[in-house]
Amino acid sequence: MGRMLGAHDSSELDRPDLNKCPDCRCFFAGDNCPLCGKECPEEMRAGNRAKVKPPKRRRGDSGRVTFVSWYHSWWCIILALIFSPIIGIILLVTSPHERSKKITVVVIGVVWLLLSTFGLSILSGILNIFDKPVDTSLSREEYIAKCEAVSVEDYYRHPDRYEDEFVTMTLVVTEKFVDAEGYKYTTYYFCSDVGGKYQIMIRDCSQDEICNYAVGDEIVIYGEGAGEKEIYDAQYDVKTGICVNVAYIEIAQ
Fold first, then answer.
1. Which residue has the higher pLDDT, 80 or 110?
2. What is the pLDDT averaged over residues 24-30?
3. Structural domains of the chain sorted by starting position, each given as residue range(s) with its CATH number in brackets
4. Mean pLDDT, to the nearest integer, of 142-147?
5. Which of 205, 184, 202, 185 is nearest to 193 (CA)?
6. Which pLDDT score, from 0 to 100, does residue 54 have?
7. What ranges in the chain are assigned the alpha helix state H?
8. Is 65 exposed, middle or buried (0-12, 13-18, 19+ CB in 10 A)?
């Protein structure tokens, strides 16, 4: 009879030297199954059965319970990578986690670092490409016709009242500076009323040919109220003022 009927370990999927009962799934050397008594069919006899594929190899630690220290837990490693990358990398390398998971976390961390470092600047540059501080759908004549004449004092004292409104006023240039916005540079001027009492900051968004204005030039601007604005010039000095986004500028006659 050979081995004890049906007594095979989990790694032994087949005994090609023995017959096999299709109902009891046990192996035997005789013609009849010793459990159910049925005669072994021809296709289940030794040498006639199809080969059985061997089982896939399992990892040596499969099924084991691994206790991980709290500082090697994923939540601790991720927090360390965010707030202290060097400590996070040390914890990750010394942790017992699988190599593939460690590599995945490192790749994600590098991508996050690049995005956090350069992503905002890139996004700012992209947004500036589509930034339209003045209405470009109007012709020069239509734009100027929509502008309401306001006094510099009134605009200075009530900037919120004129935000996004079309305005025109006469100013005297007192200072020129450049603001670096993302990947492009924008020219600004500090201007005052003719008497020099009230100061307005204008953003040059000229739809005409670009023109440089000198300190002391008296200009007439046509633009849209932008409220109070804070920017940094090329030397990273902060500049604050009541701003107008200017589409057209003329030298006062």
1. 80
2. 85
3. 1-55 (no CATH), 70-128 (no CATH), 140-251 (2.40.50.140)
4. 96
5. 202
6. 67
7. 74-83, 85-94, 99-114, 120-129, 140-146, 152-157
8. exposed
pLDDT higher at 84 or 66:
84
Q: How many CA atoms lie within 13 A of 128 on its CB side?
A: 15
- Amino acid letter at 24? C
Residues whose CB falls within 8 Å of the CB of residue 6, separated by 6 or more in sequence, listed in order: 24, 25, 26, 27, 35
| Alpha-carbon span 174 to 152, nearest angstrom | 14
Tokens of 188: 């600004």
Residue 7 pLDDT = 43
Categorise residue 25: left if φ over 0, alpha if ψ from -120 to 50, beta otherwise.
Answer: left
Percent of the chain residues past pLDDT 90, beyond the cut:
33
> Which of 167, 165, 177 is closest to 144 using CA atoms?
167
Amino acid at 229: K
- The residues facing 199 across adjacent strands are 192
Is the predicted pLDDT of residue 122 greater than 60, yes or no?
no
What confidence score (pLDDT) does residue 28 get?
A: 86
Instruction: Specify the higher pLDDT residue, 108 or 134.
Output: 134
- Residue whose entry in the numeric block shows the structure tokens 């605009």: 155
- Report the C-alpha gap between 42 and 57 in whole angstroms: 32
Q: Residue 219: which residues within 8 A CB-CB, separation 6 or more?
A: 170, 171, 172, 173, 191, 213, 249, 250, 251, 252
What average pLDDT is seen over the chain? 82
Q: Count CB atoms within 10 A of the CB of residue 8.
A: 16
